[in-house]
What does this fold into?
Amino acid sequence: MSQVTRLIREIQDGNVAATSELLPLVYAELKRLAAHKIRNERPGHTLQATALVHEVYLRLVGNTGERWDGQAHFFAAAAEAMRRILIENARRKKSQKRGGDRQQFEVDEADAIEAGKDIDELLDLDAALTKLQAVEPELAKLVELRYFVGLTIEQSADAMGISPRTVKRNWAYARAWLGREMEGRDLD
It folds into this structure.
């Protein structure tokens, strides 16, 4: 049993001290994954990789009802938490209450229009992913791992307990399904 898995089990058994031991072990990987996802966000966004990692970690260890089967399940839960945080952030930015319908013009007008489009695409992706999750939960989990966390084919295969070949096939299918659902937009 890996040290991460052991600490996860201790946290679930009520050992609060184990949370301070777990963070240094998973922090670097979570930060790498968050930085990868933040890199794909629109220019001028306010969410930083460090803040995203801290929010994900607090949600994961603060949720006492959550049970993980090990390191792979923990990182899959982290992927889902990152997705939720990014979606919440996009919705908050877009909401009327916070002036989400207004565009900022920092460099030039074309950049601001693209920034608004990215938020809409992220919200469209979330809606499509929610539909996919209802029909094919494993494919939705794969999309979260690949798109929101940035795992490779091999890392995704390991996290899901399936072969890399199956991941490649499922990834191609999920991208096509989401692309069709999002009206022909291409998902990188």
DSSP finds eight helices and no strands in the chain. Helices lie at 3-12, 17-39, 49-62, 71-94, 109-135, 137-149, 153-160, 164-181. Residues 104-116 have pLDDT under 50 and may be disordered.
